[in-house]
Design brief:
159 residues, mainly alpha, two-stranded antiparallel sheet
């Protein structure tokens, strides 16, 4: 159903269309999904990757709904912290503040909607996964040169 052109792969526009049936996902979020759910950072996703992505989105939707306690369609600072923690990401208050500032579409830095929660989660997941590759002892620190750092971070900025 998602593969409209019959290539056996789903590109960014096809993925955005299928995922935006309810609420729209930004093309940036779609590009982050493609980056994180393909092994070669391809601009297209195959059936195996699509299933993995679909399962992850279902999990994130469940987490979002569980922590949106007031059913506002948004999660605030405490709810975001708890939601990310339930996904395995312990975020410091200073990082949480940066995330809210970036992903609150009102610009107030108070709460984020589901699509921005997914984008935020993709960034946190992706950067955490990349950092863990460099922190093999799980000490919470790693030594990187500038090139490695840039190659680790830039795909998440330019997605």
């Amino acid at each position: 159903m998602a593969d409209q052109d019959g290539t056996g792969l789903v590109d960014d526009n096809e993925l955005q269309r299928i995922l935006s049936a309810g609420r729209p996902f930004s093309i940036r979020t779609v590009h982050l999904m493609l980056h994180l759910f393909t092994s070669n950072s391809s601009s297209k996703i195959g059936p195996v990757e699509f299933v993995a992505l679909w399962k992850a989105l279902k999990q994130w939707r469940g987490v979002f709904e569980r922590f949106d306690k007031d059913l506002s369609g948004k999660i605030d600072s405490g709810e975001l912290r708890d939601a990310l923690l339930s996904l395995g990401y312990a975020i410091s208050p200073s990082i949480l503040k940066v995330l809210l500032s970036k992903y609150d579409s009102t610009g107030q830095g108070k709460a984020i909607e589901y699509d921005k929660f997914v984008e935020c989660g993709l960034i946190v997941k992706g950067l955490t996964d990349r950092f863990k590759e460099k922190d093999s002892q799980f000490t919470g620190s790693a030594t990187l040169n500038y090139e490695t750092f840039m190659l680790m971070v830039l795909p998440f900025i330019v997605a």
